[in-house]
């Protein structure tokens, strides 16, 4: 029976939440985009990955509503809008409009805002979002190429994007347990508060949220809340890791399009371990030149494919270099050109027989998955919290889709050495 339907606004976010659902006992399948027809899937949760995080609001709303209709048709009882644990959204912000549209479509008056993921250092206190020991707006996220985050107050961010008022369930109330949280949510609803930010300092708070929110029709958040909800829905003795998602495939490549602080560290480390090639953005801007460049890069990848560790292609840049590129070509032109390059490289590598892709970056992962024309994933073993190996349902292709900010410094090598095929 289908219990939970998740609408994720990017692909790494989708594998992130799918991984936590599986790890916490809820069998889950990830579908890339909204399926064109109804499918019989033997699972209890479905995560639909969209590539809507940086879309204009109207487009993101349309995609989310299509996903909702499909999930409703499959009989899901609860719906979860998954966005980033760092609340990534553009200045025009589509988290608010999507949340409003989903609430309206479901005929609901209230939902929660819970981006926290304490295991990866994302906590919420008095409505302020922290990344490790820093406020969101003081973390590396202020330099994000597409969705720079310069405010940390979730109530303010939400009210700027959405139509209703936003309130808070604070940490002290969370400490008092599920009944106290439910009571506070009711009080807020009576005051006409449409969205309630949930303070979250630790995993116990996520378990409390799961208990308090099991009957809420629509919840929104990062992947942490999924831990609490999965524990509520899971049947005792349910298998955790899914062997159907274990990595396979000989020819592997690492593609990195994230410019996050962590990915910069990971790329720097991996460059000392394996063959690595930086992507020259200047050669990606013009379409014809880009095609020739993609062919050249794939030739280089093929040449290094037999080494113990897979070759790396990276657009990953430090903030100063990124800023220069963006000033030269424009932010959108540069990022779309890099994404188009990764798309073409992926298609060529697939034709060359590559079947294991380790990808860094949410947008980049969306581009790679779409280029490979993969419709869905079985969720495999967890490499780092929120980053599982996944295996395509209908093709022998395995991927590790890493959120820009996730994983340890040795992630790219570990994804291969600790999970031999
Ligand atoms: N050197 C670069 N110059 C300009 N844009 C870049 C560069 N490298 C990556 N990008 C773009 O930055 C964006 C990174 O987003 P994403 O892949 O979602 O990473 P993250 O997971 O860190 O958010 C992509 O659109 C990518 O194409
Ligand atoms: O919630 C998170 O932090 C991640 O699941 C996520 O959304 C990943 O997004 P990117 O950082 O853009 O990869």
Structure commentary:
It is a single chain. The chain has 421 residues and is α/β, with parallel strands linked by helices. It folds into 2 domains: 230 residues, 3-Layer(aba) Sandwich (Rossmann fold); 175 residues, Four-carbon acid sugar kinase, nucleotide binding domain (Molybdenum Cofactor Biosythetic Enzyme, Chain A, 3-Layer(aba) Sandwich), CATH 3.40.980. The protein is built from 14 helices and 18 strands. The protein has a 15-stranded mixed beta sheet with strand order 9-10-5-11-4-1-3-2-16-17-18-15-12-14-13, with helices on both faces. Strand 7 and strand 8 form a beta hairpin. The longest helix has 21 residues. The radius of gyration is 20 Å and the shape is globular. The two termini are 32 Å apart. The site of ligand LB5GJZVW has 15 residues, from helix 1.
